[in-house]
Amino acid sequence: MAAPPDTALAPRADLSRFIQRVRVLWRGPSAGDYLRVPDGTVELVVRVTPTTCDVHALGPREQALRKAPSEVPPDTLGIQFKPGGAYPFFGLPMSELAHRSLSIDTLWGKADGARLRASLAQAPTSHARLRTLEAALVDRLHRDDVFEPAAAYLVRRGIRLLTDAVDLPRVADLARTLGVSERHLRRAFDDVLGMGPKSYARLVRFQRALRASTVQGQGARPDWGAIAAGAGYYDQAHLIADFRAVLGTTPGAWSRARAA
Predict the structure, then answer these.
(1) What's residue 214's pLDDT?
(2) Non-local CB neighbours of 102 within 8 Å, separated by 6+ positions
């Protein structure tokens, strides 16, 4: 029997500028591996079983992350922050979280982490766990020592420019538009986003190709040459190289596996 689809929940209004989506991951014993495709975001994951409650942050990545079904128990809650939206809640440059999974005890300290996990373990439903976690996030946001890099606004603007651009700019051009040096821009992106502007632009382009293949693939075989051109790749070979680097497979194999 197929697992039910992930359930989307709405974040509270005062966190909506930081949070991209909230979902409950329904993963049963017969489900396939959980695949996290990189998009420049940080995700806070709550896993509750009859005996444990685990909370950890998955940092931004440039390669896909696969988890076995046993590592994603049913009713797992995931809060995905917007690109550049996670830094106020964890008290450290996002580059220190990149390509890593850190427990809430490590990020917030053992005492605060233990209190949060105890509260989450007592919450009877996913919705109740979400409200408990949101209250803790709001509390972190209002602390006097909240992490706020001086270049946060600059990076948020740079992210918008890259996300909205029809033709993705080079780092030098983006830095010129923002009125800073390339070196300053890279450091700022590392602190706020967890990766450089070139790496983030690459993920923007890759995600565009994935979305285009989903639209094209509805009842038809995707035209990867057209998708490559539309997403901003030099050619189809460039797109294939990115698929291998990010997903570890080719576009055709990805499309066939998704269809199956």
Answers:
(1) 84
(2) 56, 57, 59
Measured distance CA(75)–CA(256) in Å, rounded = 28
The alpha carbon dihedral of 25, 104, 248, 212 has a sign of: positive
Query: Three-class SS of residue 5?
Result: coil
Q: Give CA angle at 54 (51, 55), nearest 5°.
A: 160
pLDDT tens for 54-104 read 999 999 999 999 888 778 887 899 999 999 999 999 989 999 999 999 999
Kindly report, residue by residue over 47-61, the tens digit of the pLDDT.
998 899 999 999 999
Phi-psi region of 75 (alpha: psi -120 to 50; beta: other; left: phi over 0): left
Identify whether the C-beta of residue 52 lies closer than 8 Å to the C-beta of residue 1. no
Q: Is the pTM of this model over 0.85?
A: yes
